[in-house]
Amino acid sequence: MKLRLLPIALSIGALGLVLSLGQCKKAEATAPQRVPYLPISAEHADSFSGANAHDHVAKIVAFGPRPPQSEGYEKTLKYLESTLDSFGWKTTRQTFRAATPDGPVDFTNLLARHPSAPDRPNSTPVIIGGHIDSKKLSFPFVGANDGGSSTGVMLEIARILSSDHPAAAQVELAFFDGEEAFRPGITPSDGLYGSKFFAHELGTRPNWPAIGIVLDIVGDPDFRTFHNPEAPTSFGNLVDEIAGKLEFAKPVVKAPGPIIDDHVPLQNTGLPCLHLIGDFTTMDYWHQPGDTLDKIDPGMLEKVGKLTLRFLSEVQPPSEN
Ligand SMILES: [Zn+2]
């Protein structure tokens, strides 16, 4: 993750623009439409268990470091597949090879839909995403918060939605590989491998999702939570309103500038996205050995889970011109 340098944001934006233009050309014949979204019941937020989410994070951390192609990554994939299967979701491995500063690497995103959702290549109206991989560093780095926390929240959301098939039918869960750069910081050619590939695949679908939500580093109550300033104004206002009611220990605020994370490739396809991320800029253990399970608070995971589900119970996709 995650440089906040505007020139890099613009660079990645420019790449996205090229992709979008390519899609527009092809889109003239098929004119993909965004899939209509029907807000889910507000009651689902009450069912979110921070203890359950924390248990998932603990299990994932116990697999050890999980950079792309590692044993820990494969164990994590298998854990996600078996857990999602137990909740009645169908998973698909989305594999691809990409050039990295360390040479070609085989990446694997894990995509999950409920059986009541439309078959591929159609879109569900909502995509909830987060990264699985942990950054490859010179020491054993398990990324309990950076990569683990959002994964735990997404699994608990899967459990809850499986009790409401019409709600589950509207959501695709996208667990991304390769969010982390192989070099220190994300650049236009290093990092966000999984979300870029997924975003490219989105552009080939006959219809498009209407709302994206991306979570990252959401497990520590000692830090502020940022939402993305590029999100539609209505998204930001709704998050502020809901977060106020949930009484986070530290405020949930609009980030002071663009943050490069997995939501950026999705946004660059035109998808309206909400991105929630803990304030890693003041987190002394970010990309350090201290990003361990003791930093993860079930209560914080629960607030983020409730925030996500309440957002989905009230949000309307912004109208497009
Ligand atoms: Zn990171």
Task: Describe the structure using short key phrases.
39% helix, 8 strands, alpha/beta, binds zinc ion, disordered N terminus, Aminopeptidase, 321 residues, eight-stranded mixed sheet
How would you portray this structure in words?
With 321 residues, this protein is of the alpha/beta class. The chain has a single domain, classed as Aminopeptidase (3-Layer(aba) Sandwich). Helices cover 39% and strands 16% of the residues. It has ten helices and eight strands. Strands 1-2-4-3-5-8-6-7 form an eight-stranded mixed β-sheet, sandwiched between helices. Strand 6, helix 8 (233-246) and strand 7 (252-254) form a beta-alpha-beta unit. The longest helix has 25 residues, at 6-30. The model is unreliable at 3-27 (pLDDT under 50). It binds zinc ion. Residues 1, 135, 146, 180, 287 line the site of zinc ion (ZN).
Quick gist of this model?
The chain is an alpha/beta fold and 321 residues long. 39% of the residues lie in helices and 16% in strands. Helix 3 crosses helix 10 (298-314) and helix 5 (144-161) packs across helix 10.
Give a topology summary.
Elements: H1 6-30, H2 43-46, H3 50-62, H4 71-86, E1 90-100, E2 103-113, E3 126-131, H5 144-161, H6 165-168, E4 171-176, H7 193-202, E5 211-216, E6 225-227, H8 233-246, E7 252-254, H9 263-267, E8 273-278, H10 298-314
Parallel strand pairs: 3-4, 3-5, 5-8, 6-7
Antiparallel strand pairs: 1-2, 2-4, 6-8
Bound molecules: zinc ion.
Zinc ion binds at residues 1, 135, 146, 180, 287.
